[in-house]
Amino acid sequence: MIETKFLQLAQQAVAALKWEVSFSPKPGLVDTYSNGSHTDMDWKLFYKSADSLLDSFVEIAEKSYRQPIALPLREEIGRIGRIAEKDMFQATNGVNTHKGAIWSMGLLISAISSQQTKNIETILLTAKDLSRLPDKNVIPKKTHGAVTKQKYALTGAKGEAQNGFPNLAKALAFKPQLDDFDTWMRRLLVLYSNVDDTNIVYRSNLNVLRDFQNLSTQIAVDPRNILNNPQFEKLNDFTREHNISPGGCADLFAASYFLKHLK
Ligand SMILES: CC(C)(COP(=O)(O)OP(=O)(O)OC[C@H]1O[C@@H](n2cnc3c(N)ncnc32)[C@H](O[C@H]2O[C@H](COP(=O)(O)OP(=O)(O)OP(=O)(O)O)[C@@H](O)[C@H]2O)[C@@H]1O)[C@@H](O)C(=O)NCCC(=O)NCCS
Ligand SMILES: Nc1ncnc2[nH]cnc12
Questions:
Q1: Which Pfam families does the record cross-reference, listed alphabetically (predicted)?
Q2: 87-91: average pLDDT
Q3: What is the longest distance spanned by two Cα atoms in the chain?
Q4: pLDDT > 80? residue 1
Q5: CA-to-CA dists, residue 251 to 110, 258, 262, angstroms
Q6: Residue list, ligand 2 pocket, CB within 6 Å
Q7: pLDDT in tens, 145-195
Q8: What distance in angstroms lies between residue 65's CA and the mean position of ligand 2's atoms?
Q9: Which of 17, 18, 23, 29 gets mutated to test ligand 2 (max ligand atoms within 8 A of its CB)?
Q10: DSSP secondary-structure letter at 39?
């Protein structure tokens, strides 16, 4: 029988993934208004994908409960993470919806369950330590992320975790603004401004990433209502023109919501 505490933690992670895709508008990304720069995904597919991850998230919480941060735990959650990736691809018919999210959420769930804490600093530090342990069972693949990281000397989702999730922490540190929507929109823009998202670079190049980040920074710090700021429409147009999607930022956005709403 699944213990309620593990199920509840996993359900919160799945709910955060669904919240992320529902949050609208998000330039370049799939939301409930549009499919952004994607032709093979919509918000319903993301819901299906999120639901397919519940069992693996429960198992990560279970297997991590009060465990020391050491190689056996790292290898165990790596094994479950790879099953989660398979479940996701099966649920989506081969579309990569949540690969980055499985990685980040998996580490965060494991950190929460192993330390039995809601303290964000402790969670990020523990997830960082876990991610730095070498999992000998990883088979290097020529993924889009791997190709891009090598070509441009970027560190991707792995680097974000191994550095203690600095961009996620930056987004969370952003003080509430006018209202809940404005606060979360600016947190998303903080991620757009700072994350070296390999999805963007794979579909374009480093110059496009930097222009995207600079435009996002301008909007994030502008006190005007974001949806009335003409620069926001410009950002939307920019993602369309370059056919780019900040999928890595979306994963971290979901993870930041998950941490902020831990019960
Ligand atoms: C360590 C792994 C994450 C290995 O990952 P990989 O080597 O494949 O490459 P990364 O670049 O590290 O990216 C993986 C995904 O992470 C997201 N991401 C990208 N950049 C960043 C960043 N700077 N910080 C954080 N996260 C980042 C991103 O995922 C999202 O985008 C995907 C959808 O994008 P889309 O545009 O559709 O791209 P594609 O389908 O690839 O291509 P096209 O559409 O252009 O054709 C979606 O998945 C989002 O989630 C990257 O895709 C890890 O996978 C690993 O080692 N796993 C093993 C299991 C394990 O150990 N798990 C432990 C914890 S459970
Ligand atoms: N809403 C979204 N759109 C595109 N890629 C994503 N990866 C995770 N969430 C996403």
A1: CitG (PF01874)
A2: 98
A3: 53
A4: no
A5: 17, 11, 17
A6: 20-21, 29-30, 36, 38, 98, 101, 245, 247, 250-251
A7: 999 989 998 999 999 999 999 999 999 999 877 899 999 999 999 999 999
A8: 29
A9: 29
A10: S
Cβ contacts of 127 within 8 Å, gap of 6 or more = 107, 108, 110, 111, 161, 164, 165
Identify the residue whose C-alpha is closest to ligand 2 atom 7: 247
Predicted confidence band at 242 (pLDDT cuts at 50, 70, 90)?
A: very high
Tokens 């191994």 belong to residue: 162
The answer to whether the predicted template modeling score (pTM) of the entire model surpasses 0.95 is yes
ipTM: 0.96
Confidence (pLDDT) at 80: 98
In this structure, the residue with its CA closest to atom 4 of ligand 2 is 29
**Among 1, 28, 88, 18, which Cα is nearest to 213's?**
28
Cis peptide before 25 (omega within 30 of 0): yes
Ligand nearest the Cα of residue 250 is: 2
Closest Cα to residue 127, out of 98, 99, 88, 157?
Answer: 157
